[in-house]
Structures are given as C-alpha cells and as structure tokens.
Amino acid sequence: MSISFKDKVAIVTGAGGGLGREYALELARRGARVVVNDLGGSRDGTGHSDMALQVVEEIEKAGGEAVSNGASVTEYDQMEKMVADAKQKWGGVHILINNAGVLRDKTFAKMEPEDFEFVVKVHLLGSAYASKACWETMREQSYGRILMTASSTGLFGNFGQANYGAAKLGLVGLAKTLQLEGAKYNIKVNSLAPVAGTRMTEDLFPEEAFKLFDPVNVVPAALYLVSEDAPSNAIVGAGAGGYHSAWVEMNEAVWLPEGERTVEGFAANWAKISEESNLHAPQSGAEQSGAILQAMQKVTGTGPSGTRG
Ligand code: NAI
C-alpha cells in the first residue's frame, strides 16, 4: 500500500540541506504542499542564505508545490507568520517536522554559557515555537502530525555535546506531553533520532561511514511518523538502513517499610532499586506514581486510600 501525502500541507524546518531537504523532497513527491523553512546559516548558526529557495526550485522542477521561508525558528512571531502564510495559501497546516539544528560542540569545561543557551534555543525553543504556532490550527482541524528531531546524544549522551544533549532530550519531553494533550484532537507527536552523513557530521564521521549513512535512509522513518497512520509517542532511531525504537522505562519500584526509609536503607537496597529487569515504559507521568503505589500495595496489601487491594 503506498503512503500518500496528497492534500496535506507540511512545514519542514531547516530544510535547506541535509535531512530536512530529503524530507521536503519526498513529501512533495508524495503530493504534499511543502513550506521549506531554513535560515540558511552555517553549521554553528551564524549567517544566512537562500538555501530554502534552492530546495523549492528543485521541488517545483520535479512538478511539486512548495514555498520557501527564511525565518529563524527562534523567533516566535516569525513562526506564527509562517503558519498564517501557509494557511492563507493552502488552507491549513497538517504536518510539522521540527528539524532545524545547529552545533556548538565543546567539553562542558570549555563551553561558554552563550553556546549552551544558543543551542538549546534553536533546537528546543525553536521546536516548541514552531509547534505552538501550528497547535491551534491542528486542534481546529482535528488533524496534526508533529515530529521532533531528537538525537542519540539526548537519549544516551555524547562527549562534548552537553548543550546539544540537553536540548535533544528536552524535545522528547516536549513530544511526550504534546502527544498526551493532542490525542483527543488527532494530533500525533513522535521523536526521531537520526544518524546521517550531512554537513553536521562531515568532520565527525570517517569517510566510509559518511557514505553509508546517506540521509535518504532516514526518510522512510520520518515520513511514516508524520503519515496518516502514524503512531504517537514513539521514539525511533534511523540511519544507514537500520531502524529501531527506544523507550523511557522504569523498573518495578521497591517498597521500603517506614523504618528503612533512611539514606542507609536506600543504600542497602540500591542493587535491587537499580536492577535492569521487569522494565516497562509508562505512557504518562501519572503512570509512574501509580506504579510506585502498586509496589506499596504488593507489600502492604493496602491501596493509596488505605483500602485493601
Ligand atoms: P544540517 O546542518 O544539514 O541541517 C540543519 C539545518 O537547520 C541547516 O540547513 C540550517 O541552516 C538550519 N537551521 C539552523 N538554525 C536554524 C534556525 N534558527 N532557523 C531555521 N533553520 C535553521 O544537519 P542535519 O544533519 O541535516 O540535521 C538535521 C537535524 O537532525 C538537526 O536537528 C540535527 O541536530 C539532527 N540530527 C542529525 C544527526 C546526524 O547524524 N546528521 C544526528 C542526530 C540528530
């Protein structure tokens, strides 16, 4: 069964090159009308150019429909204008791929507060602003698909990327709450951790790996996650042709009787508390509290209100 994006309006931020460009081209090939957003700066976010315009020309040459937008995702009013313009031209906005990003890698010891702030601003605030600018429209339409671009750095950490990792895991937290708030309006929100040979990774990957991790291989995951039948709340990893899921999980809570709730009691139980077994991924923050209380019930036989379980 082929997956179509006909009659859908999509915004892809940072789509002037790299992964975003591939998403925009394929969305347009499959019938979407695409807003190609890109400030067109360098890898560290300085400067600007007409990168977005070039991608629009490519889409149009291939018979697709697109408009360019050179706004920075860090400017909320410009994100609102981008959405308003798309609505005026095409009547709605159905898909948002938050992809724009910058790098300012340094060890934490050498990282200046401005480098931290800037990277968090582009990735985390930029994605929050673009999502917020689309949110009301998506609610009104009872249709929305939002993809956050996370990273293995956010999920698992990476040397020299404290600013980037903080922003990227922040995006997963944003996705997890938006998918809850959007559920009743048919707004689905997912996170993608790509691995791709782009200008962002050109001096980080060995030459062979750079070729192997062709960004086109990330496109199937990204487009599925913003398609009509997309799941919600997924965290997906994609690169080179390999695809996986990731979860934020917890083990079973260990219930300590009152007399053992001391620092020493916690230390004595640490092996059990930190055991990587019986893991499950709560679907909301409230489920974590529920799971803690279940542990109490298991030990004491009483529920939260003191009633027998
Ligand atoms: P890229 O540097 O080719 O693409 C990022 C694009 O975002 C650039 O075209 C840039 O001009 C644009 N951009 C930067 N600041 C902007 C702003 N304020 N407003 C609008 N556009 C802005 O790099 P790549 O690899 O394609 O990255 C795409 C996304 O994937 C980024 O969020 C990146 O962090 C993420 N990612 C990439 C990985 C990889 O292996 N290439 C790994 C993990 C995550």
Automatic annotation (TrEMBL):
Regions that span the bilayer = none
Q: Which UniProt keywords apply?
A: Oxidoreductase
**InterPro entries from the xrefs?**
KR_dom, NAD(P)-bd_dom_sf, Peroxisomal_Beta-Oxidation, Sc_DH/Rdtase_CS, SDR_fam
Ketoreductase domain sequence ranges: 8-198
Cited SMART domains: PKS_KR
The residues forming the signal peptide are: none
What domain of life does the UniProt record list for this protein's source? Bacteria
GO MF assignments = oxidoreductase activity
Per the record, the coiled-coil ranges are none
UniProt xrefs under Pfam families:
adh_short
The family annotation for this protein states: Belongs to the short-chain dehydrogenases/reductases (SDR) family.
| Protein name in UniProt | SDR family NAD(P)-dependent oxidoreductase
Give the species this sequence originates from. Tsuneonella suprasediminis
